[in-house]
Amino acid sequence: MSKALDGVRVLDMTHVQSGPSATQILGWLGADVVKLEAPSGDITRRQLRDIPDVDSLYFTMLNGNKRSITLNTKSEAGKRIFLDLVRSSDVLVENFAPGALDRMGFTWDVLRETNPRLIYASIKGFGPGAYENFKAYEVIAQAMGGSMSTTGFEDGPPLATGAQIGDSGTGMHTVAGILAALYQRTHTGEGQRVEVAMQDAVLNLCRVKLRDQQRLARGPLQEYPNENFGDEVPRSGNASGGGQPGWAVRTAPGGPNDYVYVIIQPVGWEPLTRLIGRPDLADDPEWSTPEARLDKLDKAFALIEEWSIKLPKWEVLTALNSHNIPCGPILSTREIIDDPTLNDNRIVVDVEHPERGTYKTVGLPIRLSASPADILRSPLLGEHNAEIYTGELGLSPDDLAELKSNGVI
């Protein structure tokens, strides 16, 4: 069966997480992703290793569905080969420090002259301006994109989220830009630059907090459980921050993830009161309307917790769902990796690796009816050097041997 991106060649010069997460999605969608690494390899091959001298899970889980070649792009021979690779590619993706490719001599003007149809995608920490040359990491992007200041409890410090919204979140935005540029190329025949900054991507994911920042000018945010409001959006714990109030309530036996997140909808209040053994609150004017409950949401969720804490979370979930009350169990990483539904749907996938054996990874979270994804293992370092350099670029085996002996590959 054909794939959505069959025929698209991606030259992947990315490393760590933000770039590899983007190019892996393109590979899952059917693009031929050629990961170009320095002869020493992507640094994450060696980071957080759990098996000595074997590519780490950090690397394998972000670089499936790719081919790997090695090239020293600082050498003269490497520069020539790199431009040959650019000529045969549709997309180039990189997440080096600002100006790194320019300093190698590969400016956008040079790349565009080499291949006018090239989509050149760059991931950076920040956009042009005061922050442009700051070093960026996941949590720095969260800090400067609005996430940390609005995450946590009111009386506690700012917190990072476990979701990698700075790295993988930026990767998702980059995929959108690349696909848009590829589509536009079908009309214009020309490539273009795609630039995504980690700070900007995090801010886009935090846009509801900017909504609330502007609403503060007209008074306190009633759907927040906070007692005091200043001139900036406060941290609000597990409150949903949306139109329907929600909170994580404890369940038995009281472990670190024995919680269920519950949302109180207007239509759900009456069945909730019956479920928790307080049917008197259904018609009590102090409790019966969303407006009446706004100033006592902490008490409302405390009442629910008095009921839920006596039951295991899966029983709580079953009871709430039987009354069509929005809810979800807090799933630990152990529960997620073993979850039968996630495994059956291939969002958690077993992959075979020639050195580490079987490992689990996350599959494509996008389902295309005419282009199902194959979730393949990550490549070994330089595994496809001969295949690409001799089979596709036309170098001879002797050329390849010379390049290797000279440290070019």
Sequence-ordered SSE layout with sheet pairings:
Blueprint (H helix, E strand, L loop, with lengths): L8 E5 L4 H11 L3 E6 L19 H4 L5 E5 L5 H12 L3 E4 L5 H5 L3 H7 L4 E6 L13 H7 L23 H21 L3 E6 H8 L1 H9 L30 E5 L8 E5 L5 H7 L14 H4 L3 H12 L4 H10 L4 E3 L3 H6 L1 H5 L3 E6 L3 E6 L22 H5 L7 H9 L4
Parallel strand pairs: 1-2, 1-4, 2-3, 4-5, 5-6
Antiparallel strand pairs: 7-8, 8-9, 10-11
Helix pairs in contact: 1-7, 6-8
Task: Characterise the protein shown here.
Helix 1 crosses helix 7 and helix 6 crosses helix 8. This protein is elongated. With 409 residues, it is α/β, with parallel strands linked by helices. Helix content is 35%, strand content 14%.
Summed up:
It contains 17 helices and eleven strands.
Structural class: alpha/beta
Termini gap:
34 Å
Helical run tally: 17
Strand content: 5-15%
Mean pLDDT: 96
Helix fraction, binned, reads 25-40%
Q: Tell me the number of strands.
A: 11
Radius of gyration: 26 Å
Principal-axis shape: elongated
Largest sheet: 6 strands, parallel
Give the helices and strands as they follow along the chain.
Answer: EHEHEHEHHEHHEHHEEHHHHEHHEEHH
Write out the strand line-up for the largest beta sheet, numbering strands in chain order. Answer: 3-2-1-4-5-6
List low-confidence stretches: none
